[in-house]
Amino acid sequence: MIECRNVSFAYEPGQKALDGVTFRVGPGEAVGLIGANGAGKSTLMKALLGLIECEGEILVDGRRVEKRTLADIRRRLGFVMQDSDDQMFMPTVYEDMLFGPMNYGLSREKAEARADAALERLGLQALRHRHNHRLSGGEKRMAAIATILAMEPAALLMDEPTSALDPYNRRRVIEIVRGLPQTRLIASHDLDMILDTCDRVLLLSGGRVAADGPADVLLRDRALLEAHRLELPLSLAGR
């Protein structure tokens, strides 16, 4: 579904933010992208969306990410931003959910059918006509996920989906993410959330893939995590 082949990128000459990154995420996989600040997680997300031009090759569903394919690529990749205020810009949740599908050429009737299906799948019908500026942080994060699902992407890129949430809303978002059928690549410092939602982990360090393996194995490896300025998930720290 998503494949990077020797992908490199530098914001400044001689300072690589990505350095020969190679990995593959298969259809339906849920993969956590972890690493300390500056490891390259955000840069990799930008590269997958075609927001920066990199050396190497990035494929999404067999299509190379390049200028002529960007419109098609972005229909296949749904991006849930870290700050929901950057994503939700229409007056109400429902209007936000209709905007993307209609912008891609769907009729209002078909866009409404997609929006209704996404709200029902997530159990968020009560948010349908709520005004975005009156939502709590957790409600807005869940509405942002619903907005992306209404576009029916094949894969989801999620940037810190549980950041700044209270315990109740954090758990609700985890339940939603865990139940999604799409291919998921989730960047987060919340390693407990990654452990709860992902089967596999990619550890980035200095722009390179330092480790790639089962989440339940890598997230229990104290020496590996500490070597890359990370700590064990809180749920495992006392074991």
Distance between the termini: 36 Å
As for the number of domains, it is 1
Shape annotation = globular
Query: Biggest sheet, strands in spatial order?
Result: 6-7-8-3-9-10
Describe the structure.
With 239 residues, the protein is of the alpha/beta class. The chain has a single domain, classed as 3-Layer(aba) Sandwich (Rossmann fold), CATH 3.40.50.300. 36% of the residues lie in helices and 26% in strands. The strands form two sheets. It has a six-stranded mixed beta sheet, sandwiched between helices. Strands 2-1-4-5 form a four-stranded antiparallel beta sheet. Strand 4 and strand 5 form a beta hairpin. Helix 3 packs parallel to helix 5, helix 4 packs across helix 5 and helix 5 runs parallel beside helix 6. The longest helix is centred in the middle third of the chain and has 15 residues. It is globular, with a radius of gyration of 18 Å. It starts with a strand and ends with a helix. The mean pLDDT is 92.
